[in-house]
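Session log. Operator J.P. requested a structure for one protein chain; no other inputs attached. Running the standard single-chain path with token output.
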Amino acid sequence: MERLKLTIDSTPVEVDPGSTVLDAAKKAGVHIPTLCYHPELKLEGSCRICVVEIEGLKNLAASCVYPAANGMVVRTNSEVVRKTRKSIVELLLANHPEDCLVCPRHGTCELQDLSHQLNVRKVRFKGKKREFALDESSIAVVRDPNKCILCGRCIRICENTQKVSAIGLAGRGSRAVVTTPFNRGLAEGPCVACGQCIKVCPVAALRERDASEQVWKALGNSTLHTVVQVAPAVRAALGEEFGLRPGALVTEKMVAALRKLGFNRVFDTQFGADLTVVEEGHELLHRLEKNENLPQITSCSPGWVKYAEHFFPEMLNLVSTCKSPQQMFGALVKTYYAEKFGIAARDIFHVAVMPCTAKKFEASREEMGRDGLQDVDAVITTRELAFMIKEAGIDFANLPDSEFDLPLGMSSGAGTIFGVTGGVTEAVLRSVYEIKTGKELEEVEFQAVRGFGGVREAQIPLNGMTLRVAIVNSLGQAEKILNKIKAGEASYHFIEIMGCLGGCIGGGGQPFSKDPDIKQKRASALYRQDHLKRVRKSHENPAIKELYRSFLGEPNGDKAHDLLHTHYRARPRY
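Structure written below.
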């Protein structure tokens, strides 16, 4: 296929057919500022920040949507282009709240960055500030319409990528506003709390509901025994908040920071992931033996589970009854750990550090506790933990290394890769193969399930049968595959569904990043840690073996079901 030849600011460049002017500029090493554009989203060209001059064209063109063509001559830095961009930013600032210094996105705000980049030093226009009430109905996501700049990113990721449509555009012209169906609270609609809208919002119109003050209060209460668990994906991203290279593994420094914050015990959610693998693996073998409720669909992603409750309630019988690693861990903290160390469950304050905002919702579910106590008392995101570390004045990069506390800090490599799309499937396969065949795997890495494709399929030989598995990356892809299953067009034994693109590494609570390869870098960090682990299969974790021997009994047994399994229910969309 013949490539297109054009000129960007006097620089010749060749691009593939179908490329935009913005693509060509990147190829030529020319930076064009953008705002409504996002590499993971459908192109829209609504904000006009990326306008350029194209020879022969009467008006300026939005480079993010304008197609590149042979012989095109483009100017990205002319006087009219610069003035137009400045004027657009000034108009946005004229309507924007003037609270930058106390805004949660101060320092990571794209509107702030644009103002600085375009040398905006005054705002010539006077605009009416919006006076909408905060939407704090959700336990996970806070919506602030006053900060919204109508870029539409949140709508596009919710509608096109996630297929949820919990928010949309209402009104026209100056009355346009991003809102919810019937203008009700987020919690009253189909929002699954995944936080992907937060991740793509360039300002603070959407943010996680901050639980750090609740955690600070518990840490300052000497009558409470404070326990914290940390998810795999957090250690692959936290360092970004402290200037470390993307994909840096900061496990030991993260543990040291949590100790300095004052937690009595620092544990690893990967222990819970290993436990989930054993329970989910035995559940799968049972379903295969009975040939019922197949395919078994994973239940580790709370955003996916809530999506199923809203959009596919008729298929809830296929969802694994296993709790997520966070919640299995929570159940053990308030029972096994409490008994083992002689601490009353009511005196334990249990915090989970997660890459995911939906984990806040999951921890609040009435099914996730007993005797009037929730198993997880507070969930904070990777970003919230970073804020707490900074607030405490901790020099993160120069902390000495520290190790997780035992026994709930011991984990396998299989538990580590839970943070990447395909990781749950690979971890389950490592254990199910050996449990079913009684033979040791020659190669523990299942490359067929790795990658970032929307839907990936693999066929695994298993003791005389072929196990058909599928890995689903995002809720929009889940809709496609579930409709195929309902129509009889697809057949599997095991399906992994992660609500966020890339899995937990791309969770709504992870650090904001403009690096187009950030998911790959975080994934590589977790695969690297898996490779370095002495134990790489969940069922071989010595602490897991001891847990079953001394406390739980048999995998999928009565006590395990009572503590580690749950049920889900149909929810209305509105």
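Operator note: The longest helix spans residues 269-290.
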